[in-house]
Amino acid sequence: MFRKILIANRGEIACRVIKTARRMGIQTVAVYSDADARAPFVQMADEAVHIGPSPAAQSYLIADKIIAACKQTGAEAVHPGYGFLSERTSFAEELAKNGIAFIGPPVNAIAAMGDKIESKKLAKEAGVNVVPGFVGEIEDTEHAVRISAEIGYPVMMKASAGGGGKGMRLAYDEKDVREGFEAVKREGLNSFGDDRVFIEKFILGPRHIEIQILGDQHGNVLYLNERECSIQRRHQKVVEEAPSPFVTPKMRKAMGEQCVALSRAVGYYSAGTVELIVSGADPSGESFYFLEMNTRLQVEHPVTECITGIDLVEQMIRVAAGEKLSITQDDVKIEGWAIENRVYAEDPYRGFLPSTGRLVRYNPPLADKTQAPFADGVSTSLDTNGSGLDSVSSQPPFASSEVEMPQGYIRVDDGVMEGGEVSMFYDPMIAKLITWAPTRSEAADLQIAALDRFEIEGLGHNIDFVSAIMQHPRFRSGELTTGFIAEEYPDGFTGAATSADTLKHLAAIAGFIMTARADRACQIDQQLDGTLEPPYDWSVTIGGVTHAVSLDEDVTVDGEALDLDMEYTPGERMVEASVGDADYGVKVEVTRTGLKLTTHGRVHKVQALPARLAPLTSHMIEKIPPDLSKFLICPMPGLLVALHVQEGDKVEAGQPLAVVEAMKMENILRAEKSATVKTINAKQGESLAVDAVILELE
């Protein structure tokens, strides 16, 4: 076994690998850029080596610096995590030349599967179903248009070396191809150093199912069941679960055996994932097709660990050290259900624009083990789910907080800390929230409860959005496709749907909070004359409806008595409340006219006034916001990579005006109406701040 390994990555996956290595008695080395000098993974590792400036192209993507760090520290092996150099054949080859083990698959397998064009050819030869499309070099946009017409719309354009949702565009017609082909080439070149593109048929009603593969260097290859990853935005996964609510045992066996056959065909070992597209329109489940094989650890690997009890990072390390797998295919079971939500630094209320900045407050659920409603005590065994597989890994493989609960458990994998910064240089993922329970419904309920108690302040995040997905009737029914988000939120996200009863409950909670605040103020002022009492009757407006709330003897809302159980001390940001049989974790923010209460996937703006003062609001003058429609404003910090117009040009509604790159993704900014370009305020290649004016229309 290795004595010391280096993790050629950053953030949560670096923390994840370090924790398993530490449990195995292996020393760890972290490498870090300027932006990550104070990051948690740097502090967790036994040693850390600085490798350069913040941009990944000048630090994490330079193989020579990683190898130099190995030699400097005596690291015997490198775990690449995901992204960066994890699927670069040249990196694995250089490690081998320097006598350093690569904790991953063999070079020939990376090469075979890393090229989407060549991998499809190999998959077809191995007897794996493949999607109809053009597998070859595409010369230019005109060639792409001809190919798309021959295949038949809709088509998907993909960067050959792409991954992680980058370098992909869906085209429904010729216009989409002409507009998106060059963008796919640029994203492929910028992110992967390869501008080749291929085009394939877009499967209607598609579900994204992937099979986890695990093999050793002695010819043993297993499939560890499937993951459902259909809920995506811009081809970036948002929610993952295992198993899939769509896959039957017959499908699972057919998929798994085809994926094992492909793995054997390329001599694969270590952990890997074969991604499949499945036609949800085919109830037989036989219409599944090979998409690609990721020759690395996946972001969503925790859900597989939760249902199988197998620590994939540990297995990767053992396989790289030459050990045989200690389990067979018959040992791989499915116990319970696991769901993972990716917590991103993006603002769903503003069209999911990337959000960078400092984490002014970061408090993941269960950081305090006594936090209600979860049970005390840290789990120390994989037997929390009764899997009986602790012979594979005697300690939990989980990378962060894990607390056992009677109905399941939650797990947080992260690599950030309060006061740290989410940088523009890297992926916007803040954390991964994973829940396990005996059933899918219980796992989703745990997600909702945990998300309510996940505190992030200082930048935009998608906690409300993923909570809304967990509550959505279509998600609960398991009727998923990759178009879920676009279909269910066509006009953007404004918050989860809220029932009238929930609004009444929140009105009662708001009245309680306002009374406690008023009581505190009276206690302070009472020192002056001793006659003050707080108001117990409130006019609470929430969700466009005004409620009369009274806390005189009982708590009543509009005359209806409610059984409210809660405690609140002025200044608290989070409260636990029960109203009847309903439990709430509510984030509290005080405003000038009341409160902001956030729970169950929605921010509720609450106006709370003493009942005797409420009638005076009719005399208030409404402030009209300024008209900014004549300005093209940069929606997020980013780089202006293209400017399509000049001063004096006439533009039409929907016409592309500029392209801003943020967090490695290109965002096309379009005209909202027909107009003429009056002035240009920014230059191509310029770095822009959020709300910077790019141009003015007249």
Describe this protein's structure.
- The chain has 16 helices and 43 strands.
- It starts with a strand and ends with a strand.
- It is α+β, with helices and mostly antiparallel strands and 698 residues long.
- Residues 367-406 have low confidence and may be disordered.
- It is globular and about 85 Å long.
- The chain has a nine-stranded antiparallel β-sheet. A five-stranded parallel β-sheet has the order 3-2-1-4-5.
- The chain folds into five domains: 4-103, 3-Layer(aba) Sandwich (Rossmann fold); 132-202, Dna Ligase, domain 1, CATH 3.30.1490; 205-488, D-amino Acid Aminotransferase, Chain A, domain 1, CATH 3.30.470.20; 500-619, Glycoprotein, Type 4 Pilin; 631-697, RNA polymerase II/Efflux pump adaptor protein, barrel-sandwich hybrid domain (OB fold (Dihydrolipoamide Acetyltransferase, E2P), Beta Barrel), CATH 2.40.50.100.
